[in-house]
Amino acid sequence: MPQMRVIDRKKETDISTYPPDLIRNFSIIAHIDHGKSTLADRLLELTGVISKTGKNKQVLDKLKVERERGITVKAQSASMFYEYNGKKYLMNLIDTPGHVDFSYEVSRSLAACQGTILLVDAAQGIQAQTVANFYLAFGEGLAVVPMLNKVDLPTAEPERAAQQIEGTFEIDASKILHMSAKTGLGVDAVLPSVIENMPPPLGSIDQPFKALLFDTWYDKYVGVVCLMAIKDGSIKKGDRIVSTHSKQKYEVTEVGIMHPEPSPTTSLQVGQVGYITCNMKSVSEAHVGDTFYRDKHPVEALPGFVPAKSMVFAGVFPIDADEFARLDESIQKLTLNDSSVSVHKETSAALGQGWRLGFLGTLHMDVFRQRLEEEYDASILITAPTVPYQIKYRDGTTRFIRTPADFPDIHTMQDNVESTMEPFVLATMIFPERYLGQMLELCTLHRGEIQNHVYIDEARVLLKCRLPMAEIVSDFFDKLKSKSQGFASFDYEESGYEASDLVKMEVLLNNEAVDALASVMHRSTSVVAGRDMAKRLREVIRRQLFDIIIQTAANGKIVARETVKQLRKNVTAKCYGGDITRKMKLLNKQKEGKKRMKKFGKVELPQEAFLTVMTKSE
Known about the structure:
Number of strands: 31
Strand order of the largest sheet: 11-10-16-7-8-15-12-13
Structural class: alpha+beta
Oligomer: single chain
Number of helices: 14
Shape: globular
């Protein structure tokens, strides 16, 4: 961990001398691993927020999971003081994630900014998430300042990358800054460029207080901490504020800025971005996108955010049923810090009480699981990810299916269902031209529909294709990286629902369905998936004193069967010679006992069986 300077809680910084025209709120957006967090480190060193020890690596990546994986998961803000042309500016920087699964973090961060730095790796050039993030910022009406990073690398091609930016985004290549965040080359020009090319925040100090809540986290000492962008007026300790969403009143106990640790200030004013603590004890009271105003001075609510649409659902269950209450509290606290996760309670006959959680993607799901285990010491079991399907009935009604258990049975399907629909995504892939054949083949194999492909320069191709979301959540991304030797980048956006021939795949153990292993899939893949599931189950289920028949059924029709043979005692071992009828009598007696045992015996699946089946077959 880098050495942070110690903050004296009694000493409060006065930032009331910074009017809106001396404030710049900006973020850094880029594709994953293009150097956003490294640039943030250099800017914090340049402005004296952290010391230049040479050991500063991803200072704003505060989570353990971020440091282990080397990716940004959570958008983090930091305030800096910078002198330019004789004036002292307050610069509020927000470092954002680069992976498609965390695009909701990016969109929330952009709402608190007036401009953004679009960072592009000079060696990699434009990649899929670069395109997606640019249009996200463009749609918000933000000033976009493009910059080329890693120009010092031997493989860097800054001229080619600049031409790509000019051709794709229609930005003048001569205005693009060239730098290296790692060595510090050209970083001195970043903040002057931000001041010159980005507008100051709008608003007036004389208007009633109005603030947008754009991030929250839970502190065990002070409760809920709210990160707000002040749109009008000012706020200080002791003021009473009201939530537009819940109408609840709170007394402000502390205001401050992230420097990059919480640093108290005398007040927060129009245009500034900072944190507020207000004795908010319950995690359910904080709603990201909420507008706050001063008590008895109501204001018109800000537009807020479009709620994040969960694209992947998974069941989460405690391994020990006694841990349910503690895990429930842990999930509430973690969803406060990650508002894009949707939570619904559910019960499984095989796994007991748990939750059905909605995520933005499979990496998002994996990071959430890791945070639960590391930050809250939870032992959990996550079921295989599913996507939300839609059932259209003949009476005109539609219903969303989030769990395989909600899928209609075979009789309802025949009598009442008009069509089944699955979500599709519009995928964007950018890769070297030599991999075009493999990429087209990969999309076709995953039921994809090629839209078009264009050459963004003489060596790189941008391919657009429509794919079923269910294909993305399996192993599509792994295959994409494998077939392109790691050169392909991938991004997707929602593209509506389309009619599809869906079936419910059930697993039967001795004719009893196991609800936790059920799944919904396209009919064309059901036979192969059913056989694979039965084979893997046969390997992990322990032998018992009776035969265990494993069957997989698609919409009630058996597609595969495997048998785990019973353990048998050699009852004829004591017979030395004699008539065959003696042996037959003993064998028949054993056979009758096995029949009775099979009738009353129950097959218990070990936890390892679930974990093995959840993993995708090779």
